[in-house]
Amino acid sequence: MLYHVIYISKAVTPLSGEALSHLLQQSRRWNESVGITGMLLYIERHMMSQITGRFMQVIEGNESDIKPLFKKIKQDPRHHQLMLLQDGPIGQRSFDNWVMGFKVMGWQEYVDHPGYLDMDELFSNGEISLSSGVALNFMKTFYAM
User: Fold this and answer.
1) What is the pLDDT of residues 5-50, one digit of tens each?
2) Could you say which DSSP state residue 105 is in?
3) Which residues partner with 61 through β-bridges?
């Protein structure tokens, strides 16, 4: 059964281009070996003298591969405050040609992007009030590009 997970999280420390490249290479190798597809978005925000990072990711594939991978992602020390936005069975893949799509964005570019999701509000409320397709549709905008 095809299954997907969409989550957001905060980076413990901002990731360098080299660290992001390593993460992407590692993810693509693993995903290709088990047939997982998806999209990883890394958003960097500069506030005063502080830089913060946010992740948003969609992973899709066989449920028997996605659930263990998501468990591993939740234990990854590079991020914290992970919030599950959506998970469950899907009829078809949304990112079928992407072993792992990837995009780095600055905060302003993210805020200006169509379908913007206010991650800070989601983190501060501690609850998810998204209708079923909002997060997925947001991530699919990058696939369409």
Assistant:
1) 999 999 999 888 899 999 889 999 999 999 999 999 998 887 777 8
2) E
3) 3
The beta strand positions in 35-100, using DSSP E, are 37-47, 50-62, 79-89
> Which amino acid, one-letter code, is at 129?
S
Can you tell me the distance from the alpha carbon of 121 to that of 103, in angstroms, rounded to the nearest whole number? 22
Instruction: Give the number of domains in the chain.
Output: 1
75 Rama class: left (phi>0) / alpha (psi -120 to 50) / beta:
alpha
Q: Is 107 exposed, middle or buried (0-12, 13-18, 19+ CB in 10 A)?
A: middle
> How far apart (Å, rounded) are the C-alpha atoms in residues 126 and 89?
24
CATH of the domain at 127: 3.30.70.100
DSSP state of 95: S
Question: d(Cα 22, Cα 143) in Å, to the nearest integer?
Answer: 22
Expressed as residue numbers, the domain containing 22 is 2-144
Instruction: Please state the separation of Cα 116 from the chain's center in Å.
Output: 14
The string of pLDDT tens digits covering residues 93-132 is: 999 989 888 888 888 888 787 777 777 776 666 555 555 5
- Per the listing, tokens 């069975």 go with 89
